[in-house]
Amino acid sequence: MHRFHVAHQRLVPIAVTLLAFCLLALAASNAHAQDSADTLELEVPLWIAELDADEAQTRRAAELKLIEAGPDASDYLPAILDDLSIEARERLNRVRAEWAKRKAESHVETQLIRLQNAKTLGEALEAISTVSEVEFDLEAAGEGGDLTQTIRAPRSPLNFWHAVDHVLDQAKLDINFYGGDRTTLMLIPRDENRPSRVESAAYVGIYRLEATVVTARRVLRSPELSSMNLNLTIEWQPNRTPIGLTLPISAVNGKLDSGETLVPQTSGDTIDIATNTEMAQSEFFLPMQLPNRPSETIERLAGTLTAMIPGRREKFALDLNEPAASQTEDQMTVSIEAVRDADPLREIRVGVELDSAGRSLESHRQWIFENEAYVILEDGTRMDHLGYEVFRQTNSGVGIGYLFDFGPAGSPPPGSKLIYESPTSVAQDAVDFILNDIPTP
């Protein structure tokens, strides 16, 4: 006991020293961040002015400095830019496009969640929510929803779905995807025979994949009709619904425990997977050729998922009494084009333009029609639209007319604002996945 007491006394000053060191490091980090902000506040206006310098070399250098400063520099742009020349505006537009691209690419990066300090279900779910901004509804979770129950935390950081599954396996919970929305997952008690979520799944990027059904049939009179078919579910982080999610057939391959290669049927170039912002799960069907020899498991099934990933959602607030009100956030510009009579209603015509839209506005534009649009009156009252009509579609944007009933006044009252909520950027994403040890019939 005496020996332990001495050792403890020795450790106290060491712990105090380490704590002081950590506090100093934190203070230094905060001071550095503040210095960086102060530097940008001083230098960004100077670089903007240099976009109009007499020397071409100075103009090019200023453009590069703005690009290298990154998206954070956008907070320090001068409020008034009317004095810039046409060339300077073009350079600034290139800078803004690069900032938007970097911001979108950073949103595609997988977020890692650290649960090492979580000791209970409540602490673990809170840690996941803090990083992902996804909430959990435990109203239907029953006994498994006890937030005080002990959780064994993993030692290493995990991506969103791996972290969620790690916690749900211990709490004996599952997910009802029909009960959540774009920011919430509803947790429910797990069926008794439900296998471990962690052991059943493959995790890659924002996705979770799981094989749910495997069927095989041999057609004796028409062998070419024989097949082995797989049903798979794919889940994505609820607030990051992919756009135009596809699985190229040419990238799908597998191997059985018999050593035989598993190959897909020639049923097309891609498998299109439906996505919806209100439900973070979809199911798709993977047709494979029937193996020549019997097997017990598919040892390996691999493929590539391609999609456009939307960036962070932003809120546009446009004054309905201001002619041609417009607002730009990242790659998106939303404008009021007209407020027209549609007796007995009023139609608010809204233009939505997206820089570098790519495939996101080709055949996969439904996401933009699912965005929320409503009117907030001066007293804070919310008015939802009564329907909409698309009056324009181009490669870079859409025009949407929203119908509202403003009562006897007919027009939006003074102080009314149209609120439009939408992701403001999209980025291309392609990830490879591998599923292992899938039992066969």
UniProtKB/TrEMBL annotation:
Signal peptide residue numbers: 1-33
Keywords: Signal
Top-level lineage group: Bacteria
Protein name (Swiss-Prot/TrEMBL): Uncharacterized protein
Species this protein is from: Rhodopirellula baltica WH47
